[in-house]
Structures are given as structure tokens and as C-alpha cells.
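STRUCTURE:
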């Protein structure tokens, strides 16, 4: 469903601020894979995700989504293949609109996005059932303005909107990093339910090593634009945070310096 072939990306090339963010990176996701991605600051995690989303073009290499070469496609043209949830809960929803209006816009993605014809009773029932998956009581608040919701509720709603029309690939960019631990756990539970129910191919960046181990069927660790560890199946289930730290030190020759990831 996703194939990244030998992609490289350098920022500020030829200047004193030159930074090689991705260095001939390759990664393949089969349909239904749920891959968590970890790594320290500057490892290239977000750069890889943004390259897949088309935020910027890569210097070399290719990217395929569902066997379609999207390497040269503009970001807005790739959007039809992707669902995406960002770190900031305020991104991805329209605060001045109602919950049902946000969902209606998301469900009409790919068509003329207008609410002129209104929201039918049948659509409301669909939205109620979908919102029940989140287990946040939002199914009884369809006409509530999104701006009145908590950060966690907005993030969960954004997740639902991103997956309402089953995307070829779901991109989660540290989507629980700005939430308190209890709320983050709820959003991750909802993520698991939605991904499992719709068998979504998912790429999730996280700063939390425990979350990377617990969620998904495969874990990838990055360092300096490379993938240095790729584990799945029973081996992944047996992992401990100490194993990941040891693997990082073994491959990189140094100690893992990102306290935020270790302490979480």
C-alpha cells in the first residue's frame, strides 16, 4: 500500500545550515500494516511523513501509494489517497462549525464540499454510530460547536474525520503528543479500534516508546535519516523500552539523548 524507494532530502543545501534529513530511505507497508515510528530529534520521522504527504518533494527516490507513483504529485493531488492527523488538536477541524457539519464536510471529500443541501436524517444516524466508536459521548452532541470541545475531543473527532472515507494510507503525526496521558490513552484506544475495524494501512509517528511497542503490528526506529531497526510480530510484542534503548546504542554507537521519549 505504501512503498518508499531510496528517498533522500536535504534542507538548505550548499549553506552552513545544510541538513540531510533523509538518506536513501526505503520502507514498504503492506495493506493493513500499522507501523509505529520512533527516533530522536532530527531522526527524519516527520520529514519522511511530510515527504509521503507531498508537503515537499524529495531530492531523489520514489514514493508509491497503492502502486501509484505519487513522487511528483502536488500535496493537494495526493490528499485523495491519504487521511492525516497532526500533533496540534486545533488543526483539522473547523471550530466555528458544529460536529455534524465537520463530519459532513469530511464525508463529502472528493465531491463539491458544500452544506447547501443540508444534512439528512440518514447522515446524522451514520455520524452518531461513527462517533460511538470514540467512546466520548459526542454522539449526543452533534450540534455542538467544535470550538467548545476539549483538545482530546477535537483530536478524536479529527481522527474520525480523517478516516470517514477510508483512505489508502492513514498518517498520524504524533497525534497524541499535545494531550494529557489519560486523554492520549483514550485517543490511542480509538485509533486502535478504527484502524482495526477498517483495516487501515497506518503510519504513526510517536515520541512515546511504550506506545510504539503496544500499538501496531510493526515498529520502525530511525536515526539520521535511516531506518536502523525494523521489528514485527511476536518479536515486537516481547519488546521492552530497554531493548529499544540497547538497539539504538548498538547501531548508533551513542546513547539515546531524547529524555522526552524515555520518560514517557
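SEQUENCE:
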Amino acid at each position: 500500500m505504501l512503498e518508499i524507494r531510496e528517498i533522500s532530502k536535504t534542507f538548505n543545501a550548499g549553506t552552513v545550515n545544510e541538513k540531510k534529513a533523509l538518506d536513501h530511505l526505503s520502507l514498504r507497508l503492506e495493506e493493513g500494516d500499522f507501523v509505529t515510528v520512533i527516533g530522536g530529534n532530527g531522526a527524519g520521522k516527520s520529514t519522511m511523513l511530510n515527504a509521503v504527504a507531498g508537503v515537499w518533494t524529495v531530492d531523489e527516490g520514489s514514493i508509491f501509494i497503492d502502486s501509484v507513483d505519487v513522487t511528483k504529485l502536488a500535496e493537494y493531488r495526493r490528499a485523495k489517497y491519504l487521511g492525516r492527523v497532526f500533533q496540534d488538536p486545533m488543526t483539522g477541524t473547523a471550530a466555528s462549525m458544529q460536529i455534524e457539519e465537520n463530519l459532513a464536510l469530511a464525508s463529502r471529500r472528493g465531491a463539491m464540499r458544500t452544506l447547501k443541501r443540508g444534512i439528512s436524517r440518514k447522515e446524522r444516524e451514520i455520524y452518531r454510530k461513527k462517533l460511538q466508536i470514540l467512546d466520548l459521548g459526542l454522539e449526543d452532541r452533534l450540534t455542538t460547536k467544535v470550538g467548545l470541545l476539549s483538545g482530546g475531543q477535537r483530536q478524536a473527532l479529527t481522527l474520525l474525520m480523517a478516516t470517514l472515507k477510508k483512505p489508502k494510507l492513514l498518517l498520524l503525526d504524533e497525534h497524541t503528543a499535545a494531550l494529557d496521558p489519560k486523554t492520549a490513552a483514550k485517543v490511542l484506544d480509538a485509533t486502535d479500534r478504527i484502524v482495526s475495524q477498517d483495516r487501515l494501512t497506518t503510519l504513526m509517528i510517536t515520541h512515546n516508546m511504550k506506545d510504539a511497542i503496544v500499538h501496531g503490528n510493526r515498529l520502525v526506529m530511525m536515526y539520521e535519516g535511516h531506518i536502523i531497526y525494523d521489528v514485527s510480530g511476536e518479536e515486537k510484542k516481547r519488546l521492552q523500552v530497554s531493548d529499544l534503548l540497547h538497539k539504538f546504542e548498538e547501531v548508533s554507537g551513542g546513547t539515546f539523548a531524547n529524555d522526552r521519549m524515555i520518560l514517557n
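REMARK: The first strand starts at residue 2 and ends at 11.
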